[in-house]
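Structure tokens please, single chain.
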Amino acid sequence: MIFTDKKGLVHDVQLLNLKCNRECKVVESKGNSWVAECKHDCNWRVQISPEFPLATIIEVVKKKFHFTISYKKVWLARTNAVTMVFRDSDESYLRLPRSMDALQAFNPGTVVMWDMVPKLLSSSFRTEMYMNCVFWAFKLAIEGFKYCRPMICIDDTHLYRKYKGKIVAATTVTVADKITPLAFAIVDKEMIESWGWFITLLRRHVCRDQEGVTLIFDRHRALLSVMSRICDSPAV
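Here you go.
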């Protein structure tokens, strides 16, 4: 069976337990991984992980079907399974412009900014534009920031699968001490140019003319360099 997410799998397992009058115990639950087994003598075990080790898959197939599958076939099968659940990476990136257009269409005032880079195609000797970074901030977040505490926390996390990169998020805290998102960006990698581009757009479209805003971030060298440059330049 194929589940779109971890939550759906857990829900179906719980329903099955109710129907069969059985109880399962969770052995491990972290991130996208989830392992559970029956507390009774059912001898079953459920395990989900988007990065299931190839060696484990080979061992499971051998134990269940008494057949040793090749490493290449296992890799292709796992790749196809991940694509079926999470879609193809190329397709996802191709859908990104339309998704951003929809955000702006149904959320008027939402800011979306693209950073495109030219790439020469050796096969046809022509140039095509490729996405380097994309920034977006919802209108409600932009307007609501003036009523929040004058502070912004910036953090990022890695993107995996075919195309590497990072997704950056800026959040703030309301007067009721609730965390609320302000802006997001998908960048190629964590470096001075990417951080400078994101913080400049954050200051221009979210902070605007508001003074005295405190920025909270880890003391990454690239960020320290960017902040020093931006603070010394009134143009940004």
